[in-house]
Fold this protein.
Amino acid sequence: MNILVTGGAGFIGSNYVRLLLEGSGDRVVNLDLLTYAGNLANLAGYEKDPRYRFVRGDICDRELVRGILEDEKIEAVVHFAAESHVDRSVEGPEIFIKTNVLGTEILLEESRAAGVERFVMVSTDEVYGSLGDDGQFVESTPLAPNSPYAASKASADLLCRAFFKTFDFPVMVTRCSNNYGPFQFPEKLIPLMIANALEDKPLPVYGDGLNVRDWLYVGDHCLAVDAVLRNGVPGDIYNIGGCNEMRNLDLVRMLVDKLGKSHDLITFVKDRPGHDRRYAIDAAKIMTELDWKPDVDFQTGLSRTVDWYLENRVWWEEIRSGDYTSYYEKMYGDGGRHTSGGPS
Ligand code: NAD
Ligand code: DAU
């Protein structure tokens, strides 16, 4: 199959491109703008694979998207490209609307015109909003996004529904919980805590640290997306989750212990505005209908992740020495969340 992967130079996208190139005979075209979050180093070594082509470009560039779909005779699209960080969407929502909403609309429209046979929209559990102490999100839970990021993803998610209902376009939507693993940009909780701890910097826990996330190893997410691509029913939505709820504070403590650092590094900082309290996914549908389940248990996945960041210091140190320094200062320094330190 000729597959267009968007956002394939990011965290999950690069893990997915690797899965395709290692585990299938498919041809892969990776369209990625290389924003601050995109990094060609994530796929180093694959440039020479004859089944792989990288195109640097914007999913909002209609002519470019049309050209790729035609020239490469694309049969399937797996759409990861997005602005993905909630905190950045609080600072500046506009780019989230452009990339996540308009970009998705352009991909859908051009894919339909080009006769694409399968389209997977990688949405998120954040479209459901926040849970109280009990219950889980199911696919029919009403959408109630709370951050500009979540609202932009919900809009894109609903555009997919509209393209199926109106045009019978074969789109499937996945809604996954929090991913972790190699190549995650160190603005997200787990890699940020690992990198800060390794540099003996404060570990900024938002609010009371009791917010709950359901963590899934990225490789398991990629296998789920692939199952949906190959066997999902057009028009259907698939929840994907790790069956692994964890309070942020407990998770940070676990990381500190794995790294042999002091708990004194943990610093409580100002909460994220509109911070969703709890996410929990009921993934029964994909488990029963597509025979998927998370394989990597959390302790194994977390140890694997910590080892990866230990062995790939150059990868994250390079990121943290660039524009990231001003990002960190803005978000966590004076005027931001007020931690006493931060990456140098
Ligand atoms: P990421 O931020 O690591 O990567 C996003 C990629 O998209 C980057 O390579 C970036 O360069 C690219 N991109 C951004 N704007 C673009 C544009 N206009 N045109 C082309 N490429 C562009 O994100 P991630 O964590 O890998 O998430 C990937 C997808 O999965 C996103 O759609 C996100 O909403 C969704 N998702 C993420 C998680 C998670 O825990 N990380 C969970 C569920 C769903
Ligand atoms: O649930 C899926 C979503 O998971 C994806 O759609 C998003 O793209 C992805 O970024 C992620 O969103 P979160 O906001 O849950 O992830 P983040 O790593 O930013 O934060 C996880 C939790 O940790 C959250 O409760 C906020 C908290 N946190 C985060 C950071 C960066 C802290 O306490 N301190 C921090 O410095």
